[in-house]
Amino acid sequence: QQITSLLSGIALMAVGVAMLGAYALVADTLRRTLGGNIRVITTLMFDLWPARVDADALESAVINLAVNARDAMPQGGNLVITTRNIAAGTKATPEMAPFLLDQIEIAVADTGIGMSEDIASRAFEPFFTTKPVGEGSGLGLSQVLGFAKQSGGGVQIETVLEQGTTIRVYFPRS
Questions:
Q1: What residues are paired with 39 via a beta bridge?
Q2: E-assigned strands of the chain?
Q3: Which residues contact 133 (CB under 8 A, 6 or more apart)?
Q4: Residue 102's Cα: distance from chain center in Å?
Q5: CA separation (Å) from 33 to 37, 66, 67, 121, 134?
Q6: Segment 108-153, tens digit of pLDDT
């Protein structure tokens, strides 16, 4: 179903989601399932605005980002999940244009190996993977991007070799 909605543009079941509660539950699950050498750190904004998103796709997106982060930290490291509100007219980062509408930002950062510019430029392409054959479908990040776009938002990637990667996902406030 996730691949179908990604590739065919089928509408997701968007409902008003209290983003803080949804992310607190996912972060708790991640702590138990990522392995003992990955430290999950959350900085979740207490008064995070709600967003109109598909709750299952939201959980899947965070898990996809966390699994990619884990794979980028074979010796262990920190997985940091943060959330924040971004008011209309504000830039999320210095490189970005100001948002026209209020946005919710969910960022997943790791202290892993990072990506080269070439890899980062292709990271959201469907079926693109740096993993050995049989170990990755190359759909995780493309699903995150598709979900964000279907929800009226977007995605930004920041990465530095040998320092880690941060992926920021944006959703309009509902």
A1: 78
A2: 15-17, 38-43, 51-53, 77-86, 103-110, 154-160, 164-172
A3: none
A4: 18
A5: 11, 10, 10, 29, 21
A6: 999 999 999 999 999 898 887 777 666 666 667 889 999 999 989 9
